[in-house]
Amino acid sequence: MAPKADAACDDKAPKDVDARLFSAIERFIGSWRTERNPSENTVRAYRIDLLDYARWAKRTCVDGLHPTHRQLRRYLSQLEQAQYSRATVNRRLSAVRTFFQWLNVNGIVSEDPASALSGPKQPQRLPHHLRPQDVVALLGVYGKRVDSQGRDERAPSEMRNQALLEFLYACGARISEASGLLLCAVDFDQGQCRVLGKGSKERIVPLHDLALSSMRTYLLFARPLLVKDKECPYFFVSTRGNQMGTDAMRKMFKQALAAAGLPSTITPHDLRHTFATDVLSGGADLRSVQEMLGHVSLSTTQIYTHTTPERLGAEHHRAHPRG
After folding, report:
1. Residue 272 bears catalytic tag
2. Residue ranges of the domains in the chain?
3. What's the CATH fold of domain 19-105?
4. Which of 55, 59, 71, 139 has the fewest Cβ atoms within 10 Å of its own Cβ atom?
5. Which of 154, 160, 174, 223 is catalytic?
6. Partners of 194 in the beta sheet?
7. What pLDDT, in 10s, does the model give residues 55-95?
8. CB-CB contact of 176 with 146 (8 Å)
9. How far is 233 from 243, CA to CA, in rounded Å?
């Protein structure tokens, strides 16, 4: 049975949002979460964007559940006039489109006024990746240091940080996947691990020997000192022995960038871009890289097939008969 938009309205609706529209948004979020199983970050972003639309609708006296196509175009136009970035406008458009599609499919509205909406075109930007020397500098920040007796003098947290950085670059994992990596999901014998990606989709990713060595050192000598007498199912743990969250990982990453003398604008996701670019440059096929990254669409992986002008020149010189 289709949900009813005019059911009892949620009494927790913000004062600047129509209660019936708020109720429909909350029902959509609940249904979408169950059916699509998106990440919590995506759910949070959709709710924020839809509430922004709801506030605009009430402010401009538009029936937010039954707007016309022209009224929705006006909403997008006002976002652009307010100088929101193209990415933000398109993200909000995506949320509104998905919401009205759900309303229409469930019989709450008879027409979908958002189906023909189009957002501003975005320039094609190549993903940012680190230079080889930058990768070496970053991975060297928490590298092994030995004392006069040949003993590793790093603190447990430094061994963990080294293992985490090596892991991120070894398989191109997202920071959320690293945080959620389970202890039982790492197979040192097979040289691989199971990660839980977007939409709770599980995939197996291979790990190279240097990453496995750093992760094994952390597991044997550092992790027991961090968890102490606690039981934690996650591979990477905080200094208190709990799951190491994404915020803590990003903070550590920023500290590593500073220690390596690299720009603070580099993100953990850039390390994922670097992994993809490097393995493709090394001869890996596109389908394999798609599997390793956990991309649903091959076109998403294809953005990493970019080449530098220098490499284009070298390839032209190598391949052309008169090169």
Report:
1. yes
2. 19-105, 132-265
3. DNA polymerase; domain 1 (1.10.150)
4. 59
5. 174
6. 204
7. 999 999 999 999 999 999 999 999 989 998 888 999 999 99
8. no
9. 8
